[in-house]
C-alpha cells in the first residue's frame, strides 16, 4: 500500500497518497491520487476523473480561485477544492482516464468512442476505491464539465458502491457538445488541444477512431469530401487538422463527423442514464443554453431521486472550481453520511429567474405553467404580438448580405424590438424562431439571439438559437415552441426558394421589467466581439462562420409570418398597438 505523505495546504494538514495504480479488468492500470485527513480512519470518498491530468487539479491546493479574465484562469481545473473536501470529512480521489496523464492504456476517439467504454473503467475504479482501508465503502463523485460527464457514464454502469452523484455543467448529448443546430462550435477544440484559457487533454496515448476504422485511401476520400464544404475549406485551422491529423486525433474525428447518428449516439449519456437509479443532483448556470438543455433532458429520463438547479447568468465558474460546494456537501451529507439535513424535503427543481432575480421552485421543469405566445417580425424592425396583415407585394422582406470573413471583419445583424413592457413579464422554458427566408446559396447559418434591453441601453442575453440551413428538417418530437432537428442528413437549400427555418431557442428563465424591451438579433455569423462572446477569447467561443457570400431575404408578410414563439408564465403587457 502507498504510504501517505503530509501536505500543508494553507494551515490544513492533508495526507496525500500519490500515484496509486488502479487495475482495470483488461489489465490496464489507471493512476490516481487520494487526499484525506491525517487520522487513520475510513471515510466516504468523492471520485473525480477526467483526461485533463490529476497534477493540474492539484493547483487547488496552492492557487486561490481565479475568475475570468485572470490569465491564471484555466478551464480544466475542475475537480473541486481539495482542502474543503478533506475538511468536510471525505477522501478526494483524483485520477486520469486511460491514455491520458499517468494512466496506461489507449484512448480511442472522442470520449474513448471505439475503445473500452469509459463507464467500464469508472466502475472498476469506484469499486477499487470502495475496497481501500481509507474508504468506508460509500462513494460519490465530484467535478464539473468533463468530470460531470464522467459521473453520468459511471452511474449508468451501476457500480454497487456508487451511492450518489453531483453533476455541474456536464456535456451529455455529444453531438450537441460540438454542433449546435448543425453549426460547429470551436470550444471543444480548446478542451482537446489546449487553447484560449484551457490546458487541454493530457494526451499520452490517444488514437483517432476514424484512422482506426478506415484505410488510408478510404480516409483520404472522406477528407476530400469534407473539404468540399466551403465553410470548412475557408477556415485555416480546419484545413490544417484535416491535412495533418496526427496529434489532433480527437478534433479530426469531430470535424469529420458533422452529422448525428451512431458515431455520437452509441454512448450518449442521456440514453445510458435510463439505466441509472442512484440519486443524482444536476446543477447548471444559464448562459450556454445547450448545456441547460442537456441537463433538463437528463433530468427527465432519470428514474431515481433527482434534483435540478438552474443558476444565474453568466456561466463561467472559478478555476479551481469552488462554486456549488455548499449544496454539494449537503447532498453528500445526506446520501453518503446518512444525516437527515432536510435537502430531500426541498423541491426537486430550482430555477433562478434573470431580471427579477427570484428563485422559482417546483417538482418538474418547467417550474410554472407556460403559455406559448408569438412575437411577429414586422416592418421597421418591430417585434409585435400582432401578426403582419400586409401581403408580400406590400411588406417587402428585410435582408442582409454577408461576405465571408476572409474578406471582411464586419458581421451583419438584423434586429427587431418590442415596445417597452408595461408590467413585469416572466418567461421560463424553451422557444422557437420561425424564420421564412430566401437565400442565394445552397446553405447558410441562422443565429438568433434574444436580449433584455434596459432603458439605459444596457442589455443582457436571454437565450440563443442556432441552425444550419441544410439541417432544417424537423422530427416527430417537435411541438409548438419546442422544435427538434434530427441532424442525420444535410439537405441543400434551393437558392431563391422561400423556406421556413425553425430555430430551437435554448431553455431560459427571465423577467422583462417595466420599461425593458425584448430585442431579437439575426445573423449568419457571430459578432467578432461583444459582451457575451467575451466570456471566452476568440476564436474558441465562436461557431464556424459561413465560408461563402450569402444574400438573405427575411420574409415577414401575411403569408410568411416570421415569428418567435416564447414561453410566457405571465400575460405580456406592452405599449404594442
TrEMBL record:
Pfam families registered for this protein in UniProt: Peptidase_S15 (PF02129), PepX_C (PF08530)
Record InterPro entries: AB_hydrolase_fold, CocE/Ser_esterase, Galactose-bd-like_sf, Xaa-Pro-like_dom, Xaa-Pro_dipept_C, Xaa-Pro_dipeptidyl-ppase/CocE
Renumbered residue ranges of the record's region Disordered: 472-491
Domain Xaa-Pro dipeptidyl-peptidase C-terminal: 329-565
Keyword Transport on entry: no
Keyword Protein biosynthesis: no
SMART domains for this protein: PepX_C (SM00939)
UniProt keywords, alphabetically: Hydrolase
GO MF term list: dipeptidyl-peptidase activity
Xref: NCBIfam families: CocE_NonD
PANTHER family, per database record: COCE_NOND FAMILY, PUTATIVE (AFU_ORTHOLOGUE AFUA_7G00600)-RELATED, PEPTIDASE S9 PROLYL OLIGOPEPTIDASE
The name this protein goes by in its record: Xaa-Pro dipeptidyl-peptidase C-terminal domain-containing protein
Organism, scientific name: Lipingzhangella halophila
Amino acid at each position: 500500500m502507498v504510504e501517505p505523505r503530509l501536505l500543508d495546504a494553507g494551515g490544513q494538514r492533508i495526507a496525500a497518497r500519490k500515484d496509486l495504480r488502479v487495475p482495470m479488468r483488461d489489465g490496464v492500470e489507471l493512476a490516481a491520487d487520494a487526499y484525506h485527513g491525517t487520522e487513520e480512519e475510513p471515510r466516504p470518498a468523492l471520485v473525480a476523473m477526467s483526461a485533463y491530468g490529476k497534477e493540474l487539479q492539484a493547483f487547488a491546493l496552492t492557487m486561490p480561485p481565479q475568475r475570468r479574465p485572470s490569465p491564471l484562469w484555466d478551464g480544466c481545473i475542475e475537480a473541486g477544492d481539495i482542502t474543503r473536501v478533506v475538511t468536510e470529512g471525505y477522501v478526494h480521489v483524483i485520477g486520469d482516464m486511460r491514455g491520458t496523464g499517468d494512466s496506461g492504456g489507449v484512448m480511442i476517439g472522442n470520449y474513448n468512442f471505439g475503445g473500452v467504454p469509459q463507464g467500464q473503467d469508472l466502475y472498476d475504479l469506484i469499486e477499487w476505491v470502495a475496497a481501500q482501508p481509507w474508504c468506508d465503502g460509500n462513494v460519490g463523485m465530484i467535478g464539473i464539465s468533463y468530470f460531470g460527464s464522467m459521473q453520468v457514464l459511471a452511474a449508468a454502469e451501476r457500480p454497487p458502491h456508487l451511492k450518489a452523484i453531483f453533476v455541474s455543467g456536464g456535456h451529455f448529448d455529444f453531438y450537441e457538445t460540438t454542433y449546435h443546430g448543425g453549426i460547429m462550435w470551436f470550444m471543444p477544440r480548446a478542451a482537446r488541444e489546449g487553447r484560449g484559457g484551457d490546458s487541454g487533454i493530457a494526451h499520452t496515448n490517444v488514437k483517432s477512431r476514424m484512422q482506426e476504422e478506415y484505410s488510408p485511401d478510404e480516409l483520404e476520400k472522406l477528407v476530400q469530401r469534407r473539404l468540399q464544404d466551403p465553410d470548412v475549406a475557408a477556415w485555416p485551422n480546419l484545413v490544417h487538422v484535416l491535412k495533418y491529423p496526427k496529434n489532433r486525433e480527437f478534433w479530426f474525428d469531430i470535424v469529420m463527423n458533422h452529422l448525428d447518428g451512431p458515431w455520437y449516439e452509441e454512448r450518449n449519456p442521456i440514453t445510458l442514464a435510463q439505466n441509472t437509479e442512484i440519486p443524482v443532483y444536476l446543477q447548471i448556470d444559464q448562459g450556454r443554453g445547450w448545456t441547460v438543455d442537456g441537463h433538463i433532458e437528463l433530468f427527465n429520463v432519470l428514474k431515481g431521486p433527482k434534483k435540478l438547479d438552474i443558476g444565474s447568468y453568466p456561466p463561467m465558474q472559478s478555476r479551481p472550481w469552488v462554486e456549488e460546494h455548499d449544496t454539494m456537501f449537503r447532498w453528500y451529507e445526506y446520501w453518503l453520511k446518512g444525516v437527515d439535513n432536510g435537502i430531500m424535503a426541498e423541491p426537486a427543481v430550482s430555477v433562478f429567474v434573470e431580471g427579477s432575480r427570484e428563485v422559482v421552485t417546483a417538482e418538474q421543469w418547467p417550474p410554472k405553467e407556460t403559455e406559448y405566445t408569438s412575437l411577429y417580425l414586422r416592418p421597421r424592425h418591430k417585434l409585435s404580438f400582432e401578426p403582419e396583415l400586409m401581403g408580400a407585394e406590400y411588406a417587402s422582406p428585410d435582408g442582409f448580405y454577408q461576405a465571408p470573413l476572409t474578406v471582411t471583419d464586419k458581421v451583419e445583424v438584423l434586429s427587431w424590438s418590442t415596445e417597452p413592457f408595461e408590467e413585469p413579464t416572466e418567461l421560463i422554458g424553451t422557444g422557437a424562431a420561425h424564420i421564412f427566408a430566401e437565400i442565394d446559396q445552397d446553405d447558410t447559418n441562422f443565429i438568433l439571439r434574444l436580449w433584455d434591453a434596459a432603458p439605459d441601453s444596457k442589455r443582457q442575453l436571454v437565450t440563443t438559437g442556432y441552425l444550419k440551413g441544410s439541417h432544417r428538417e424537423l422530427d416527430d418530437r417537435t411541438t409548438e415552441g419546442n422544435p427538434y432537428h434530427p441532424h442525420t442528413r444535410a439537405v441543400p437549400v434551393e437558392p431563391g426558394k422561400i423556406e421556413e427555418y425553425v430555430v430551437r431557442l435554448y431553455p431560459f428563465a427571465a423577467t422583462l421589467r417595466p420599461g425593458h424591451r425584448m430585442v431579437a438579433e439575426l445573423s449568419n455569423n457571430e459578432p467578432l466581439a461583444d459582451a457575451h462572446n467575451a466570456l471566452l477569447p476568440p476564436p474558441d467561443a465562436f461557431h464556424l462562420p459561413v465560408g461563402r457570400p450569402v444574400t438573405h431575404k427575411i420574409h415577414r408578410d401575411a403569408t410568411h409570418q416570421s415569428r418567435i414563439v416564447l414561453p410566457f408564465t405571465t400575460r405580456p403587457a406592452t405599449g404594442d398597438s
